[in-house]
Amino acid sequence: MTCFVITPVATMQETLRITEIFYSLQGETRTAGLPTVFVRLTGCPLRCQYCDTAYAFSGGEIVTLDSILDQVAAYRPRYVCVTGGEPLAQPNCIPLLTRLCDAGYEVSLETSGALDVSAVDPRVSKVLDLKTPGSAEVQRNRYENIEWLTANDQVKFVICSREDYDWAVSRLIQYDLAARAGEVLFSPSHKQVDARALADWIVADNLPVRLQLQLHKILWNDEPGH
């Protein structure tokens, strides 16, 4: 009689496709400058024109959640950032986030805002990107996600032009984002908007937002692993 080894369904399902796990300084958001472990998931349904992580669209390695937790723990971090690609494109991102929180880390999720965030553990700081017209993906914004924002969360706008800035200001006011989220971040698209110009616009309009510069581009010029 031939015997077959059967892999339990639960084991097969408790995996994620991972592009990279690395330790560096957080380059943006509320925890900018703090040592952080990054878990970069593979795959994204969007194609923003300024994307700097296109290498995460495909490929990657299938990794169990247990192995991800072990790799993260080896760095002994305080902060963990789950990013992509678009992390929520993989359903097992949700249990990963919860397990990272249960392990005692301060966890953030960088998401495009195109997918439902309602199931994300409330202990996670959601960094919700609202896509501007200049992104070429403005039609993908899922505005229902705004209802799930709390003071623990952050909203990010990547500004590609003065028109993008005006659009972002209108959404800031329309959805009262400064009251809904803990932080609203305006970031100049790299080599498309001058950071000083964006700073001047924010000051002139006295906006309740934070100017965000990407430290990883300043320090490491987008080298892999940073």
The overall pLDDT, averaged over residues, is 92
What characterizes the major β-sheet?
A: 9 strands, mixed
Helix content: 25-40%
One letter per element, helices H and strands E, the order comes to HEEEHEHEEEHHEHEH
The proportion of residues in beta strands is 15-25%
Gross morphology is globular
Given as residue ranges, the uncertain stretches (5+ residues, pLDDT < 50) are 1-11
The neighbouring-strand order within the major sheet is 3-1-2-4-5-6-7-8-9
Integer-rounded radius of gyration? 18 Å
Total DSSP helices: 7
CATH architecture, by name, is Alpha-Beta Barrel
- Give the CATH H-level superfamily: Aldolase class I
Question: Structural class of the secondary elements?
Answer: alpha/beta
Kindly identify the CATH topology.
TIM Barrel
Question: Would you spell out the secondary-structure blueprint of this structure?
Answer:
Elements (H helix, E strand, L loop, with lengths): L8 H5 L1 E11 L9 E7 L19 E4 H10 L4 E5 L9 H10 L3 E6 L13 E5 L24 E6 L2 H13 L2 H4 L2 E6 L6 H11 L4 E2 L3 H6 L6
Parallel strand pairs: 2-4, 4-5, 5-6, 6-7, 7-8, 8-9
Antiparallel strand pairs: 1-2, 1-3
Description:
By secondary structure, the chain is an alpha/beta fold. The protein has a single domain, classed as TIM Barrel (Alpha-Beta Barrel), CATH 3.20.20.70. It contains seven helices and nine strands, in the order H-E-E-E-H-E-H-E-E-E-H-H-E-H-E-H. It has helices at 9-13, 65-74, 93-102, 162-174, 177-180, 195-205, 215-220, and strands spanning 15-25, 35-41, 61-64, 79-83, 106-111, 125-129, 154-159, 183-188, 210-211. A nine-stranded mixed β-sheet has the order 3-1-2-4-5-6-7-8-9. The longest helix has 13 residues, at 162-174. This is 7-carboxy-7-deazaguanine synthase. It is an enzyme of class 4 (lyase). Belongs to the radical SAM superfamily. 7-carboxy-7-deazaguanine synthase family. Its EC number is 4.3.99.3.
